[in-house]
Amino acid sequence: MKKQQGFTLIELMIVVAVIGVLSAIAIPQYQKYVAKAEVASALATMSGVKTNVEAVTVETGLFPAGGEENNIGAPTMDLGTILFVPTVDTAAGAMQFTFNTSKSSSVSALVSGKVFSLTRNTDGQWGCSPKTGDTGVPTELLPKNCKPKS
Fold first, then answer.
1. Pairwise CA distance, residues 28 & 72, whole Å
2. Long-range pairs, 110-113, Cβ under 8 A, ≥24
3. Range of the domain at 67
4. Residues of 56-93 as b/e, b for ≥16 C-beta within 10 angstroms?
5. What is the DSSP string of 68-103?
């Protein structure tokens, strides 16, 4: 008798089922990881712009308004845009980051169109202000150092 070699159909089906289960767990976790990295990148970029905002605020006494047209040094990013939202006639305000929604920007679907802010109070202290609701970045995607200011 000649011994046959190879895998049976049932063994192959078990391997395919195991790969399917692992994929069902791994793909959403990977997407969440990518979204967290995008949020961290946006936060790091905004943190770099804080120095320029402080300089303008000290010089004028007011938080800057608008965006890149003020030559504050906010870079253009494929991830989204930074908008400066001042509190009326004070040195307080917020740098608001809005993630792009276009397909060409390659932004994760978990953060596409979502918003979060770095806020400055009149004492010059900065804090992270996640926006709540459907338009805010989900709190599980925010970095641990991005806590709402008290």
1. 37
2. 110/31, 110/32, 110/35, 110/138, 110/141, 111/35, 111/38, 111/39, 111/137, 111/141
3. 10-141
4. bbeeeebbbeeeeeeebebeebebbebbbebeeeebbb
5. GGG-S-PPP-SSEEEEEEEPTTSS-EEEEEEE---G
What's the CATH code of the domain at 45? 3.30.700.10
Give 3-64 as a 3 state SS string: CCCCCCHHHHHHHHHHHHHHHHHHHHHHHHHHHHHHHHHHHHHHHHHHHHHHHHHHHHCCCC
Angle at 38 between CA 27 and CA 44, to 5 degrees: 150
Structural domains of the chain, count? 1
Is 96 inside any structural domain?
yes
Q: If DSSP codes are grouped into helix, strand and coil, which group holds residue 107? A: coil
Strands 93-99 and 115-120, how do they pair?
Answer: antiparallel
- Give pLDDT tens digits for 33-77: 999 999 999 999 998 889 888 988 888 888 888 754 556 778 888
Instruction: Say which amino acid occupies 87.
Output: T
Q: What is the pTM of this model?
A: 0.79
